[in-house]
Design brief:
Protein name: HEAT repeat domain-containing protein
InterPro entries: CdiI_Ct-like
CATH class: Mainly Alpha
Strand content: under 5%
Number of domains: 1
Number of strands: 0
């Protein structure tokens, strides 16, 4: 098995294009890039929430991780919307409970409730 590093950065327009495909690998790459690079936190949050309940667990996992990245980078999220979406995702994908817990920790640590 050979591993290779892939830079998760891509331009906004390319991420949008990847999200419109049916290719789960491209969608995952786009979500990670959005979490790490997107300047518009609200748009990024909404995109992630749209993908949290994907039937594809890899896509849901990437969306969950990307929400954590957004929380760390921007120090803001719509807490009520994010919490409800993560709770729903955990019901759909119980195996992602650890990933969800990590993201909730990031939100608690970096996003002010004031």
């Amino acid at each position: 098995m050979s591993l290779s590093y892939q830079d998760p950065s891509m331009p906004h327009d390319q991420a949008v294009q990847f999200l419109s495909t049916n290719d789960s690998k491209l969608i995952v790459s786009a979500l990670i890039s959005i979490g790490l690079n997107e300047a518009d936190w609200s748009w990024a949050q909404n995109i992630c929430i749209e993908h949290l309940n994907s039937s594809n667990e890899s896509i849901a996992s990437a969306a969950i991780s990307a929400l954590g990245h957004i929380a760390r980078r921007h120090e803001k999220l719509d807490l009520e919307i994010a919490a409800k979406a993560l709770k729903k995702a955990q019901l759909k994908h119980p195996s992602l409970a650890g990933n969800i817990a990590d993201t909730l920790d990031d939100i608690e640590m970096f996003v002010s409730t004031n």
